[in-house]
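Render this sequence as a predicted structure.
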Amino acid sequence: MNKTHDLFHSIQQLARQFTKELNIALEPFDIYSSEWAILFVLKENGPLAQKEIAEYLSIEAPPVTRTVKKLVEKNYVLQVKGEDRRTNKVFLTDIAIQEYAKWEEAVLQANKGLLAQLPAESWEYLHQIISGWSHSLAIKEENK
């Protein structure tokens, strides 16, 4: 197999494994990793337009719209029309704010379990590589 293909295949497989473990950790709360991503972004950044959420998560608008709709049905977020009728601002509900610590603890425990598979001295190095790569890709995207 081509080394480039092998590298990207390995990254994709690892991401799938992370997602699977996160979904297992969040299952007792009836939340999926895609929903957690949006809840996390809103908790960290405050209310955002759906377009801002999509940009932050580097995903297309339709999946964000579908996931926000599910979170509205679960009473975890509210959508409020902006001044521009095409813009929805998304807010965490009081219920989500109250439950957030439980969800976060489940995610942290899942992350801890995943990191247990990696030597501690490798964490920082891996973080530097991933952060640097991600940053350079973001700059490339901004310059398009």
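Summary. The two ends are 31 Å apart (CA to CA). The domain at 19-118 is CATH 1.10.10.10 (Arc Repressor Mutant, subunit A).
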